[in-house]
Each structure stands twice: as structure tokens, then as C-alpha cells.
Amino acid sequence: MTEITDLGVAALRDGVRAGTFSAREVADAFIVKVSKAKALNAFIVETPEHALAAAAAADEALARGEALKPLAGVPIGMKDLFATKGVQTTAASHMLEGFKPVYESTVSQKLWDAGAGMLGKLNLDQFAMGSSNETSYFGNVISPWRRGGGDNAPLAPGGSSGGSSAAISARLVPGATGTDTGGSIRQPAAFTGISGIKPTYGRCSRWGVVAFASSLDQAGPMARDVKDCAILLENMVGFDPKDSTSLNLPVPKWEELLSGDLKGKKIGIPKEYRLDGTPEEILKLWDQGIAWVKDAGAEVVEVSLPHTKYALPTYYIIAPAEASSNLARYDGVRYGLRELADGQNLQEMYAATRAAGFGPEVQRRILIGTYVLSAGFYDAYFTQASKVRTLIAQDFENAFTLCDLLLTPTAPSAAFALGEKSADPLAMYLNDVFTVPASLAGLPAMSVPAGLDSAGLPLGLQIIGKPLDEQGVLGAGLAIEQRAGFTARPEQWW
Amino acid sequence: MSVDTATVKKVASLARIAISDADAERLAPELNNILGWIEQLGEVDTSSVEPMTAVIPNKLRLREDVVTEGNQRDAVLQNAPQGEHGFFTVPKVVE
Amino acid sequence: MSESTYRIQGETGEWEVVIGLEVHAQVTSNAKLFSGAATAFGAEPNSQVSLIDAAMPGMLPTPNQECIRQAVRTGMAIGAVINKWSRFDRKNYFYADLPQGYQISQLFHPLVGEGQIEISLDDKDPEANVKTIGIERIHVEQDAGKLMHDQHPTRSYVDLNRAGVALMEIVSKPDMRSPQEAGAYLSKLRAILRYVGSCDGNMDQGSMRADVNVSVRKPGAEFGTRTETKNVNSVRFVMQTVEIEARRQVEVLEAGGKIVQETRLFDPDKGETRSMRSKEDAHDYRYFPDPDLLPLELDDAFLEECRASLPELPDAKRRRYEQALGLSAYNAATLTADADTARWFEALLAEGARIQKKGEQEVARASANWLLSDLYGALNRLNKDLDTSPVSPEQGAELLALAADGTLSGPLAKQVFEIMLETGDAAGKIVEERGLKQTSDTGAIEAVIAEILAKNPGQLEQYRGGKEALFGFFVGQTMKAMAGKANPAVVNELLKKALAG
């Protein structure tokens, strides 16, 4: 018999509804898994009581013969960037260690309202800044995956949603929330052989999500397959008057309308994404993806996104600039860490608190952001980047006159070993080369697992859609999923 | 352009992050490396381009002028590292 | 338009003073600019703080329509360009009263562009010495919280009740040249804000405060380096700040020193300005557009509503009072200088015209005179103002009507008014109950006159002998005997007849 923890969101939901197992059994099974996976360090806080309470509510509703909520009986993981009322919320930073919000983020509240339970708060790169989950104050997350052939070097689960990706691929949770600023859902999904979608900017409320870069941050679900992503996404999005950038649109029926039939769809292949130095295996997989979408009925066309090479430098001006300001509130006055030596004044307290509270990568980005906004540099850096950002968005608009969706690799490599890139920030930044452009343009984009490299590590393909066309993105993701037949999973060593 | 340790210290001071001389020495080449790479943006001709203002077309909504929040001093102060008599407190500021 | 001749006499000759004001005016609204917390003055510390105001992680701003509307109406009231596309920017700096680590303000694209205000430098004739002061811009921004330094030996206390309250920053051009001009500008601006209803103008509660930019130069020379004296909170203090700071600058320059562009503080107790050490730290505010907020785009319907809701403004009202109501320039200026006074006067006028069934222009002068002399005199004496006046406009109008129709003589009216102030009763009721009605009953008056003449044969003889100045004596005696209630015109007529024999 299949273990309960091998089931995904849809199967768990349906199983609880059908009475195949109780929500309590589901919660118990995952709680045990979580408790035995400390070696992965995927969780900062475990909250079995939250998951059990949601399960009890589901079982009681079922016993009373009531209609179950959309996610009744489904326990999930919550990236520790979402404020959860009464439950420590840290953004993986020493700065917020012990911080218990008196409020609940809109996205997490929607999930709880839909009946989901919380297994715990998932580890991440500190303030979501990183691509390997090596910047968390609470330690690295270890990918459950290992290279074959006895190479037991601990691998990066990707970042910043590395706790989410590791927990899902290790079957500790059936699904989890992530947030994506420049690829933080898609790259970890690709590294761990799972699916994840960043919806159109403005679909998910940012209210109650610890801010990294406001014009880029967008929450989204991560799960083991496309349908599970669609189900979770439906229960995360929706208009929120508390977020000025929230889109006032009805919630689409993504699950119901999900179809892998791509007949009549045109899929664009951006030629600029064929970067020098991209491993052959990645290019081969991309070609394979092209063949799959053709098989699903799509017409494939080559398109051009001429400003692609400027996307990363643009991102590394805008994101740090916004972050340098967004993180100014962590000053040791109203919450969080305070470092204050005898005789220090207010400004010295700020400097000491922020030096002690922020990790090196966060400090580095704050310094870059402060520099590019400082007197004399603003126009050359920030204004220029905002203009190039317009050009990057126009590139996509132009491409979308020729096609409906874009297909690209998710990342330029498979998961790398922990420590491999952490000494060279620039090398780390370059890992987001394929995911950042869609973030700058606010477009929906997802990664689906498509194959394994020669070392046996997962590789992902990325689908990018027009604004608001999550349905198209999910459909193409499903078409690839159906053809890739990706069933690989990490062997349990933890 | 080149960022020297003095600039690093000045920026760190603006950002209110205490750094040691050794930190500044280490950070200067790192930041130079990143900023040097970023500077390739300068080669893009943007003379006729407007800076992006909204990622996805959307209008700023205005809220009704209604009081919806307040009278929650304990909640507001709950996570404060230091406070008394209903105030947050900080080292004495001389104005 | 007149050129100011205000000069500071230094050892090296005359110096001209150049002044610009940045006025922060708290927008009248129920809730804060970006949060739903209340704005009321004087609440318990930190009781009017939302999670947004406290800058909790993940909190986001949403703009309050009323604050935008009031800023637009203010802009319209000074004839300014309203920018249909504006944007909020973040001004980044660290201070204990600034929870976000940045203030949401508008640098690059303010809501309101250039406008102007006319000031008058002549109390007696507001049209005689008029100067136009340019307004550079008005933008909307968040106020900071409040620090208290005297509650604890080593700590400052932080109260965030004010944090996030909407302010308009009204930036003048450097068009003022004397303390009087700066004072007149601030008073006029305050009057306009109060008329528009966009700010209550309570300077003692901090609803309005000015940053005073001052520089000095030899007449005709280039602008000198300016200093900015922060948060000056009364018209008088602004005038003092200009004077003191200009003198200080002249002294520094004449001693061979240089003026440092810096932020200063005015100390009214010591009568000096001094450098603010805590703000010395060279400011690099790193402004950039707030990514949590989209551009603010206003449509024509919104602007039309703002325009339609504007009241008559002080200058227009003053001219109307003079031209249509026939008031003196001085009375018109006094009555329109403050929105509350004008409102009170117009209520008095409307009620007076209604009950007397006359046009407003027919009752205007008597109403204005009564308000400015009788009522103001009484309020002054009682240490009250129009808001707390024991007599309402309706009661005042009734009193004036009774005087106008001859029911009350001048002295009787004053007597009734005193009773009104004491009891709060209506004039008619007092007249009725106390029998204070003026009488024109010729029989009764003739009887009293006959008695007076009989009692004063000596005076009568002198009068009839040609000493006509004694007429006033007989009037006084008659009025006294009738307790002031006799109609003076009737008394005059009957006395003349009787004295003529």
C-alpha cells in the first residue's frame, strides 16, 4: 500500500473526502515524517498542534456530514517569511528570532480558511536573499538529493524557498508556500524535482509577508505536481485591499480547467537563453521539452528577448535598492533584536543591532542598495535600471505577439554542493539568469521537473506566460509533466 | 568607478550597519566586483524609455477615511525589546 | 506690489534678508494617511497606532482618499496646478520617531505644483500694500512619531500616535524679505487652510509648523547660503526666528566667517537659534519611488468634486463684504481674516436679514459693528472666543432686530446684551420679562416731562432765556426718570414742544 506521505495535495484532499483515511491519520503521518527529518533542517519551527487542529476540524465536519473546505485534511509547510499569528516568524534571520506576530498574513490566512493545516515554518535564505539556502541564521537546509556514485556531499536545495523544496521532495509535506523575487520558487523546485509556480505580480497579497523587494516579491505554491500547484494557488490568490498592488480580479478555476492539450498554442523559444557555457545536458533537456510540447499539439516558434543579458544587472540594482529601504525597519526599537552596549547612543544601537542581526549576504545587499540609491548615483543606477526594466517587459510583450507561452530551462545547472558558490556572490547571482527576467516583468512562470542529469540530479523546465495566464502556464506544465514521466525521488538517508 | 574602503564605511554608516576595518577591506573588492558587473547597464540606450512604474497595469486605489485600527497598545508593544509606561524606549536622544 | 525696505544694519553696511517657508500642515482627517488608525489629538500614548504605523514586518500602506482630496482642494485654493499624475517616494533615514526607517513623501512628482498667495502688509487697507508670494509645491507625506526626553534619566520614550498622520508640506519660494512678510504669509496661509477645512491650523497642538529658511545678502547680490530652522510653531516665533537668525548670519559673515548650510533649532526661552547636533549627520535621503504604492492618478470627476466643494476664500469674501455689503475695508478684513469669524458673521447676517425681512446689505453694517465692538469687547472681557460665546448668532440677530425696529434704544440694547451674556436667555424673553421695552407712549412721556419741568424751574427759566445747551439736561432727566425705556426720538420731540411752552 502507498504510504499516506507519498500522496500529493489532490490525493490527500480526495482521500479524506472519500473517507479512505481520516485527516487525523494524514496529519499524524506527516508529523512523524517531519519529526524524523531534522538532518535536512528544513523547518525552523514545527507546529504539529496547528496541523492537528485543522485535521480535527476536517474530521468533525466530515462526521457532521458537512461539505469540506477546499483544502480540508491537507497539511502544508509555510515558508517562514509569512507572518503567522502567535507563531515565531523570523525570515530566517537572527534579527527576528523570537518574533511572534500579532497578525496573520493574507496568504496564510486564506490557506487556513480553506481548511489547510500547518506542519511548521520552513527554513529559507535569510530575508529570502540567496539561491542555495546557505544564508539562513538557522543553518543550511540540506537537499534530500545526493549525487549518485557514493558522493555524499550535501547539496543545496536551491533558494530562497529551500526549506519548502527540501520538505516537499523529501515527502515531509505534500505542498508548501514559497515566495519568488527573482526565482526563489522556481529554482529550488528545479533543484529538487518538484513543481512550483510564481503567479502574476499582484495575484497573491503581499500583506503580512516579510518584504524583500516589493516590486518583485510574489508568493506562490510548491508541490509535487502541476495539479497540486493549481489547487494550492487557487487558495492563495485573491484581491486584498490591504495591498495597494493587489489585483482586483476574481479567482480563476485553474484546477477545473487544467488541460495538457496544447493544440492551437504557440510556444516561443527565446534564442537569447541559449547562453554560452550552459551545460549540454540542460540544452538537451530543453530540446526534449520542445519535442514534448510539440507532441502535445503546440506550434513552436523562435522568439527574441534582446535585453535578456541585462536582466540580472537590472535585478541586482532594483532588488537591493528596495531591500535596503524595506529592511530599514529592523532597528531594534519596536521588535526583534536589540544590541546595545553600555553608553551607546541611538545611532550606535542601530548600527550594532543591524550588524549583529543581519547575516553577511543581507548586509551585502543592503550596502549595494544603499550605494545605488545614494546621492549622485541614483540616476545612473536606479533610474537606468528602471528604464531597462521597461525594455525587458517590452521584450516579453513583443514576444507574446508571436506566441502564447515561453519555454526555457529553469536554471543553468543542477543543484550544486553547499559551499560551492557561497564564496563568490556573483557566481551565485548568475544562477538566477533564467528566472529573473519574468520576475522583472511580473509574469507568471513555473518550473516543472523534466529529467535527471548524469549525476542523477533533477533538472527543471520553465514556462513563462502572459500576464494573468496562469492557466496557460499550468497547462503547458502539465503537458511536460505527462510526457516527462518524472518519478525519481531522493533515497532516504536522513 | 571604484569603491574604496572609505566609501564602504560611508555607505555602511548610511545603512546603519557597524563594520570593522577588516570588514571594509573585505567588502570593498566584493562590492567593486558586483558594481562593476552591474555597470554594463550603462551601455543600454534608454534615452527614449520611461522608467517602469507599475509591473502589471493597475490603479492606485484610495481608502475611505474611516478609523479601523487602534486601541491595541499591548499588541503593538508586545514584541518590543524595551518599553515602559506604554512607550517604546530608546537610549536618550539629545536634540 | 511693494519692495520691502527691511534691512539689517551691519558694520559693513545694509543686509537684505531672504526667507522661504516650508509649512507642515496636518491634514484634517479621521484616519491616518496610510493606515486606519485615528488622528485625534491628545490620546493615550501608542493607543492610536496600527500595525502599519509601527512598521511591523510585512505591513503595507494604503492611501486615504480624504487626505488626497484635502491636499487637492488646498492646491486649488492657492490657484495651483494640480498634477493628475503624482507619486509617493520614500525618504530614507534612521530616527527613533520614524518606524519604517523611511518617510513616505513626494519628491519627484508632487501632487500640487506652483501656486501663489497674496499677503497684505497694511492692517488698515488690505489692498494698499500687497505682495504675491510664490508657492513652489504642495506634497503629501507622513508625520513622524514623538519622542519624549524628560521622562527618564537615560532613555527617550517613543509615542507613535502621530506617526503616519497626513501632512501637507507647503513649500514657498524664497520670496519674503522681512519678518513681517514671513508673519503675514504664515497668517494668510493659515487662514486659507482653515477656510478650505484642510487643516485646523492649531499651531499650539502642532497641527501647523514651519521650517524657516533664512539667508542674508547685500542688496542686489546673489542669494547667500541658507540655514533651515525646524519646527517653529507660531507666527510670532517665525518672525523672531527670521530676525534672530538673520542677525546671527550677518555677525558671522562680518566677522569673516561662513554660513554653514545646516538644520537649526529655535529656542524661544533663550531667544536664539542653535545647530541641531542630532541631525548634523550629513543627510543623504536616498529618495526613490515607493514600490508598495502605484502612481496616484486622479480623474476629472474627482478634481471637479474637489473644486465644487471649495468655499469662498478670504480675499474674495473680503472684497464682497466691502463691495456688496458696504462694509469698511478694515471691518471686511477683520471679519474675513479667520474662517470661524466669517462663518459666525454670516450666520448673524443671514438670521438678521431673515427676521427683519430685509436684504443682507441693509443689516450688514449694524451686524458688523455689533460683532466687532460689542460682542468682541464682551468676549475679551470674559476671556472667551466665538466658539465659546455665550450668545449665538441667532440670539445676536434677535437683539439687533429689536434695536433696529425701535423696541430697544441703544442703551437698552446694551443692557439687554449684558443680561444675555449672563443668563444665555434670548433678547425678546429678557425684554418681555424685565419690561425693558422702549416706550413711545406720548401720554406717559408727556406726563414725565411735565413733572421734570415742574421740578426744575431754574433750568427751565435759563433755557427759555436762551441757554439752549440745557436741552441735553432735560433729555437726560427724562430718560433717567423713565429708566432708559423712552424712545429718544419721541422724548426729543415732546421736550422741544414742552420747553417752547
UniProtKB/TrEMBL annotation, chain A:
<feature type="domain" description="Amidase">
    <location>
        <begin position="26"/>
        <end position="474"/>
    </location>
</feature>
<dbReference type="InterPro" id="IPR004412">
    <property type="entry name" value="GatA"/>
</dbReference>
<comment type="function">
    <text>Allows the formation of correctly charged Gln-tRNA(Gln) through the transamidation of misacylated Glu-tRNA(Gln) in organisms which lack glutaminyl-tRNA synthetase. The reaction takes place in the presence of glutamine and ATP through an activated gamma-phospho-Glu-tRNA(Gln).</text>
</comment>
<keyword id="KW-0648">Protein biosynthesis</keyword>
<dbReference type="InterPro" id="IPR020556">
    <property type="entry name" value="Amidase_CS"/>
</dbReference>
<keyword id="KW-0436">Ligase</keyword>
<keyword id="KW-0547">Nucleotide-binding</keyword>
<dbReference type="GO" id="GO:0030956">
    <property type="term" value="C:glutamyl-tRNA(Gln) amidotransferase complex"/>
</dbReference>
<dbReference type="Pfam" id="PF01425">
    <property type="entry name" value="Amidase"/>
</dbReference>
<protein>
    <recommendedName>
        <fullName>Glutamyl-tRNA(Gln) amidotransferase subunit A</fullName>
        <ecNumber>6.3.5.7</ecNumber>
    </recommendedName>
</protein>
<comment type="similarity">
    <text>Belongs to the amidase family. GatA subfamily.</text>
</comment>
<dbReference type="InterPro" id="IPR000120">
    <property type="entry name" value="Amidase"/>
</dbReference>
<dbReference type="GO" id="GO:0006412">
    <property type="term" value="P:translation"/>
</dbReference>
<feature type="active site" description="Charge relay system">
    <location>
        <position position="160"/>
    </location>
</feature>
<keyword id="KW-0808">Transferase</keyword>
Automatic annotation (TrEMBL), chain B:
<protein>
    <recommendedName>
        <fullName>Aspartyl/glutamyl-tRNA(Asn/Gln) amidotransferase subunit C</fullName>
        <ecNumber>6.3.5.-</ecNumber>
    </recommendedName>
</protein>
<keyword id="KW-0547">Nucleotide-binding</keyword>
<dbReference type="GO" id="GO:0050567">
    <property type="term" value="F:glutaminyl-tRNA synthase (glutamine-hydrolyzing) activity"/>
</dbReference>
<dbReference type="GO" id="GO:0006450">
    <property type="term" value="P:regulation of translational fidelity"/>
</dbReference>
<keyword id="KW-0067">ATP-binding</keyword>
<comment type="subunit">
    <text>Heterotrimer of A, B and C subunits.</text>
</comment>
<keyword id="KW-0648">Protein biosynthesis</keyword>
<comment type="similarity">
    <text>Belongs to the GatC family.</text>
</comment>
<dbReference type="Pfam" id="PF02686">
    <property type="entry name" value="GatC"/>
</dbReference>
<dbReference type="InterPro" id="IPR003837">
    <property type="entry name" value="GatC"/>
</dbReference>
<comment type="function">
    <text>Allows the formation of correctly charged Asn-tRNA(Asn) or Gln-tRNA(Gln) through the transamidation of misacylated Asp-tRNA(Asn) or Glu-tRNA(Gln) in organisms which lack either or both of asparaginyl-tRNA or glutaminyl-tRNA synthetases. The reaction takes place in the presence of glutamine and ATP through an activated phospho-Asp-tRNA(Asn) or phospho-Glu-tRNA(Gln).</text>
</comment>
<keyword id="KW-0808">Transferase</keyword>
<dbReference type="GO" id="GO:0070681">
    <property type="term" value="P:glutaminyl-tRNAGln biosynthesis via transamidation"/>
</dbReference>
<dbReference type="GO" id="GO:0005524">
    <property type="term" value="F:ATP binding"/>
</dbReference>
<keyword id="KW-0436">Ligase</keyword>
From TrEMBL, chain C:
<keyword id="KW-0067">ATP-binding</keyword>
<keyword id="KW-0436">Ligase</keyword>
<dbReference type="InterPro" id="IPR014746">
    <property type="entry name" value="Gln_synth/guanido_kin_cat_dom"/>
</dbReference>
<dbReference type="Pfam" id="PF02637">
    <property type="entry name" value="GatB_Yqey"/>
</dbReference>
<dbReference type="GO" id="GO:0005524">
    <property type="term" value="F:ATP binding"/>
</dbReference>
<dbReference type="InterPro" id="IPR004413">
    <property type="entry name" value="GatB"/>
</dbReference>
<keyword id="KW-0808">Transferase</keyword>
<dbReference type="InterPro" id="IPR018027">
    <property type="entry name" value="Asn/Gln_amidotransferase"/>
</dbReference>
<dbReference type="GO" id="GO:0016740">
    <property type="term" value="F:transferase activity"/>
</dbReference>
<dbReference type="InterPro" id="IPR023168">
    <property type="entry name" value="GatB_Yqey_C_2"/>
</dbReference>
<dbReference type="GO" id="GO:0006412">
    <property type="term" value="P:translation"/>
</dbReference>
<dbReference type="InterPro" id="IPR042114">
    <property type="entry name" value="GatB_C_1"/>
</dbReference>
<dbReference type="InterPro" id="IPR017959">
    <property type="entry name" value="Asn/Gln-tRNA_amidoTrfase_suB/E"/>
</dbReference>
<dbReference type="InterPro" id="IPR006075">
    <property type="entry name" value="Asn/Gln-tRNA_Trfase_suB/E_cat"/>
</dbReference>
<keyword id="KW-0648">Protein biosynthesis</keyword>
